[in-house]
Amino acid sequence: MRKSYWLILFIITIFIFGQKGLCFAGEVRQPGDYTSKLTFKGLERTYQLHIPTNYNQKVPSTLVIVCHGGGMTAEEMKETTQFNSLSDEKGFIVIYPDAVEKGWNDDRKTTMERRSLRENIDDVGYISILIDTLKSEWNIDNQLVFITGMSNGGMFSQRVARELSGKVAGFASVVAPAPETRTPGATPSRPVPAMFILGANDPVIQWTGGDLNWGKSTIGRGLPIPFMINYWVNNNKAIKEIRISNENSINYNVLVRHEVYNPSLGGAPVEVYIVNNNGHQWPGGTKSLPESVAGKTNSEFNATKAIWNFFESIK
């Protein structure tokens, strides 16, 4: 009877704590793909995690958080960006979190019905807790946590970089402006390395600012692109003498405009890619948004590799 009691107690303990993804002492964490859940402020959130094949739990790893666009899922973002294969090649951990009902709270002013905005869901707090959770389960370098995202996920990445500048080592925003926001917004506590990848033929974003158009619908307003870039150049104490190059290299094999803002002492870099023949799409992505509203995808410029090269350069 006593043995049965302890057996039942052991099974219940495994069930309760195992559901939270906790690592028991001595457990060996294996490379591979994981789909997990985390409850935060009463909401059950899901995420997909990829641990590279060469993961060594004795060596701190870089973490890259990849945020999907509005209306997308973590699974679609994983397929679109193909970060997993680069993760295996370069040895970093990558995570794809799901937003509540496919939309991140990027704090934009809008009349569209998006639950995260309507209920002011604390997505930034969720990302913060998610980082802490992953650090408790895997050997992640505290100084090398990065975030990237496209469209709604790109605007949200900018927000995370401002509000969690003590946790995030840098960010990359893809086909996303800085939105006109409902609140003043936080100011980063330090310079944060910043990258922007923009489509030269994006039908959703207006370069001079204004309505964000998804087909016939207006889904908010964006600030002028130069304003967004200058905000981070000033925050990062970057030198405003920029290097501009039209690249047609072996790596990218496509004409792009590449602006590099080098940091002064104590600052951080800002890089901008403006990709020709690309709309509101992830350049080089294997899955595209509807071309009728988002425009074409430039399949030759590899945004995923460009972002990793930027993150990898930050020490």
Which keywords apply here?
alpha/beta; two-stranded antiparallel ribbon; 12 strands
Chart the SSEs and their pairings.
Layout: H1 2-18, E1 32-40, E2 43-51, E3 61-67, H2 74-81, H3 83-90, E4 93-97, H4 115-118, H5 123-137, E5 140-150, H6 152-163, E6 170-174, E7 194-199, E8 210-214, E9 217-222, H7 225-235, E10 238-247, E11 256-263, E12 270-275, H8 291-294, H9 303-312
Parallel strand pairs: 3-4, 3-5, 5-6, 6-7, 7-12
Antiparallel strand pairs: 1-2, 2-4, 8-9, 10-11, 11-12
Describe what you observe in this structure.
With 315 residues, the chain is an alpha/beta fold. 28% of the residues lie in helices and 28% in strands. It has helices spanning 2-18, 74-81, 83-90, 115-118, 123-137, 152-163, 225-235, 291-294, 303-312, and strands at 32-40, 43-51, 61-67, 93-97, 140-150, 170-174, 194-199, 210-214, 217-222, 238-247, 256-263, 270-275. The protein has a ten-stranded mixed β-sheet, sandwiched between helices. Helix 6 (152-163) links the parallel strand 5 and strand 6. The longest helix has 17 residues, at 2-18. It is globular and about 50 Å long.
Main β sheet profile: 10 strands, mixed
Say what oligomer this is: single chain
Secondary structure tally, helices: 9
- So what's the overall shape? globular
The structure class reads alpha/beta
* Radius of gyration, whole Å: 20 Å
Could you estimate the helical fraction of the residues in percent?
Answer: 25-40%
Based on DSSP secondary structure assignment, what is the total number of beta strands?
12
Strand arrangement, largest sheet? 1-2-4-3-5-6-7-12-11-10
Order of helices and strands: HEEEHHEHHEHEEEEHEEEHH
Unreliable residue runs:
5-26
Distance between the termini: 58 Å
Average pLDDT, to the nearest integer?
A: 89
- Tell me the strand percentage band: 25-35%
